């Protein structure tokens, strides 16, 4: 099962300890073959919408900062419970804030 774990933007300023803890966590998940991809996201982005034949492109940002996705991890695990435990471990490392996790369907 694949899950996309998204971390919402926060006002927390990362310190060296956070970077070191995250590096260990990422290294562990990579070595276990669980982590498929990870990265941070630019705050702006582009929105593309369509209605009939009309396609509109709008530059971001779109949501309030607290609603914006700041980073992601794509993991492959055996169960939803395993994904939730990874999410718990992540939140313990990064501290206060919010993450959203969604199952990814398909190959």
TrEMBL record:
Residues 1-90 form the YCII-related domain. InterPro entries: Dimeric_a/b-barrel, YCII. It comes from the Bacteria. Pfam families: YCII (PF03795). Belongs to the YciI family. This is YCII-related domain-containing protein. It comes from Streptosporangium becharense.
């Amino acid at each position: 099962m694949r899950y996309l774990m998204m971390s919402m933007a926060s006002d927390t300023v990362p310190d060296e300890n956070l970077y070191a803890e995250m590096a260990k966590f990422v290294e562990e998940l990579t070595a276990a073959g669980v982590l498929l991809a990870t990265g941070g996201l630019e705050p702006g982005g582009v929105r593309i919408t369509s209605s009939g034949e009309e396609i509109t492109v709008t530059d971001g940002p779109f949501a309030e900062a607290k609603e914006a996705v700041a980073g992601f991890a794509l993991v492959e695990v055996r169960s939803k419970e395993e994904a939730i435990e990874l999410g718990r471990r992540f939140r313990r490392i990064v501290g206060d804030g919010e993450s959203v996790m969604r199952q990814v369907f398909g190959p």
